[in-house]
Amino acid sequence: MSKTRLARILIPAALILVWLTAAGIGGPYFGRIDEVATNDQAAFLPTSAEATVVGERYLDFVDTSTVPAIVLFTSEETLTPDELASLGEIASSLGDVEGVETVSPLIPSEDGTAAQAFAGVGSEAELSEVVETIRTDVAADLPSGITMYVTGPAGFAADISEAFSGIDGLLLAVTLAVVLVILLIVYRSLILPFAVLATSLFALAVALLANWWLAKAEILTLTGQTQGILFILVIGATTDYSLLYTARYAEELKRREHRADATRAALRGVIEPILASGGTVIAGLLCLLLSDLGSSRSLGPVAAIGIVFAMLAALTFLPSALFLMGRTSYWPRRPRFDPDRDEEAQVSSGAYAKAGRLVAARPRTVWIVCALALAAGAAFVPTLKADGVPPSEFVLGTSEARDGQEQLAEHFPAGSGSPARVLTDEGDLQEVADILLAADGVDSVSVVATDSPAGTAPVTADGIQPLGPPGTPAPQPTVSDGQVMLLATLTDAPDSDAAAQTVIDLRTELDGLAQIGGETATTVDTRETTIRDRNLIIPLVLAVILVVLIGLLRSVLAPVLLILTTVLSFGTALGTAAIVFNHILDLPGADPSVPLYGFVFLVALGIDYNIFLMTRVREESLTHGTRKGILRGLAVTGGVITSAGLVLAATFAALAVLPILFLLQLAFIVAYGVLIDTFLVRTLLVPALAYDIGPAVWWPAKLPADRASHAEGAAPPEEPSTVEEAQHADLDADHPEARHATSSAG
Question: CATH code for 342-379+554-721?
């Protein structure tokens, strides 16, 4: 065996071995993401946010940082003294639960049918496990006729954690099953789908391994929603790149006798569009680094790392595996070497060749009709309610914390257990307290006082009140750096719009006097930060992608047109989402980050298909001229791009299996937008627009074939008036002898 032939075997074998080893190491980390993941909303805020500043200062006033769990007991009847005594013992036993650091006395409601206790869960404890223990073990000892709920920040965090628990199992299984079914239909092969699926899984395993260690080193942050998006994005992108390569490899196997030659030719044909496509997505994702919100800022590099490994797997592992298997990988439909095959017949037959003839017959009519149809959908964008939703609505379906919050509001001030934290100077304590007490949305005010048995002391218009019998001295407020910490219990649920408005109004009244933090303030700051990010990042993503396309297509006009068509399709997806969310699913609204994430993914990924199309169009146009190159490029890439679009839409749609409102909405917007882009924008709108413009679409460049035609003084072809004339025009151009024969027969 010659050295060259040996190298041809050893290099791909070595690449496969490297991927197998890396994936083998990364595979076990699927079950270890909880070790480095966080879903604490406050941890994602920028350091300059008012809620973050107050949250950090709060630790200077208390001994420990705990997450409050509100344990609520309700009954249809008035609670008897014996029942209250029994519930008091149960409340005291909360301190025996591992992870619970503080427990308050039992607090009966004024109507006598409910009671509550506050359990402070340590910040180092596993919230979901502590809450689950309380819900199961403590609830087992309840007196008959009494219902218990665990709500508050700890309860909601546990419910969210439970909702994300299906990422490793359910989401991954559904995604892989859907992709496998689509690949089996597309390839009609028993080997190739599993090779592509293995490529996707290897890319995901290695990307997860890299991100896990970066999160472990606290270089980036992993959250439940980031993890879900990473899974979907890597599998979808890797499959798309693999589809592009397998289609080109099959094409080259028909042209070339030796698989080594076919592999080299296929890689040359796809490396530019894949790198450009991946680079565009990465550039768009990295724009999220400018976000002030920690969760968005972290998603950028996490997802970008996933795309890097998706490209590497599609350009190294898959070509190596297919090279070693050769034509057998396509079994039972093996591509056979046929040097005499009629390539012109291939580009003039099939559904996408027919679409090309429709475009050639009526280019202006086609693109105007498509643009109007898309604009009609985009007209509903202003009706999308994306100014935020209460965190209690984050989980779809049942939520004990949400049910408990509703019950809490019936018996106590709805803001119990999650007060607004107000940081002010010691000398301004009473003035700030008076403003708080005068606000309609505030039920009561207290101040942190470590020498008080309860840790706090009530504050009224008459000052700090004593806890105990008459004559008991009032506790002294805890002072840190000349400041005190007031706690304002709100009348509305802490995650409600009414509570948010109360905080916004109080910040206006207390401007210069105090700063407000706490759960409600965190929600307010998160919404404001997300809106700011959206207004900054969306234009930036468009600018970055435009620069990438200009470099790829060596043109200015074509990239601008591609950007405009993709933005139009995004507007249609968002407008349709508004109709579906508001009137069909009757959802409570959407987080401001939904349009931002939808834009980043849909525009960056939607451009992919235009890149796949236009790079092939440019390749064909270099030889055949622009207008004919458009029709040939559409005919050749139509099938593979449609398959890739179906795979990507299906993978993002799989996000809907998780009971998370944000992921459901993102799944619909991206999946629907990808389908629009695949079947309408890339198949009809872009080709028709480019065909109508003609060679000028590459402005300021001029392709050699177009320059040669112009130099010879050839007049531009007249636009065919019918599909049939377009078909004859193609036939005349490709087979002039056929025209002569037809004329003679006539």
Answer: 1.20.1640
Residues near 34 by beta carbon (within 8 Å), at least 6 away in sequence: none
| Predicted confidence band of residue 368 (pLDDT cuts 50, 70, 90) | very high
Instruction: Match domain 64-161 to its CATH number in 3.30.70.1440, 1.10.10.10, 3.40.50.300, 3.30.70.120.
Output: 3.30.70.1440
Lookup result for tokens 């998780």: 658
**What is this structure's pTM?**
0.81
Q: Is 725 exposed, middle or buried (0-12, 13-18, 19+ CB in 10 A)?
A: middle
Determine the CATH number of domain 413-524: 3.30.70
The pLDDT value given to residue 207: 95
Q: How many CA atoms lie within 13 A of 75 on its CB side?
A: 20
With 70 as the cut, is the pLDDT of residue 47 above it? no
Q: Are 603 and 566 in contact (CB under 8 A)?
A: yes
The Cα-based distances of 75 to 115, 116, 416 in angstroms read: 9, 12, 19
pLDDT digits (tens, 9 = 90+) for 193-229: 999 999 999 999 999 999 999 988 888 888 777 888 8
Record the tokens describing residue 302, joined without a space. Answer: 């996490």
Rg for the chain, CA atoms, rounded:
32
Question: Would strands 114-122 and 66-75 be described as parallel, antiparallel, or unpaired?
Answer: antiparallel
List the beta strands (DSSP E) in 591-734: none
**How many angstroms separate the CA atoms of 286 and 329, rounded?**
36
Type and span of the H or E element at 163: helix 152-164
- Gap between the Cα atoms of 40 and 609, Å rounded: 36
C-beta atoms surrounding 731 within 10 Å: 15
Does 342-379+554-721 match 413-524 in CATH topology? no
Report the chain's terminal Cα–Cα distance, integer Å.
Answer: 62
Pairing mode, strands 114-122 and 146-151: unpaired
Q: Output the CATH code of domain 1-31+166-341.
A: 1.20.1640.10
The distance from CA 283 to its chain's CA centroid, rounded to whole angstroms, is 16
Q: How confident is the model at residue 738 (pLDDT cuts 50, 70, 90)?
A: very low
**Bridge-based pairing state of the strands 514-517 and 483-490:** unpaired
CA dist 503 → 284, 443, 495, 500, 509 (Å):
35, 13, 11, 5, 10
Distance CA 510, CA 490 (A): 16
- Residue indicated by tokens 């998706």: 310
> Does residue 337 register a pLDDT over 70?
yes
Instruction: Please indicate whether residue 528 or residue 139 has the higher confidence score (pLDDT).
Output: 528
Give me the pLDDT at residue 728, please: 46
Domain boundaries, the chain: 1-31+166-341, 64-161, 342-379+554-721, 413-524
What is the residue type of 233?
Answer: L
pLDDT tens-digit profile of 402-411? 999 889 989 9
The enclosing H or E element of 72 equals: strand 66-75
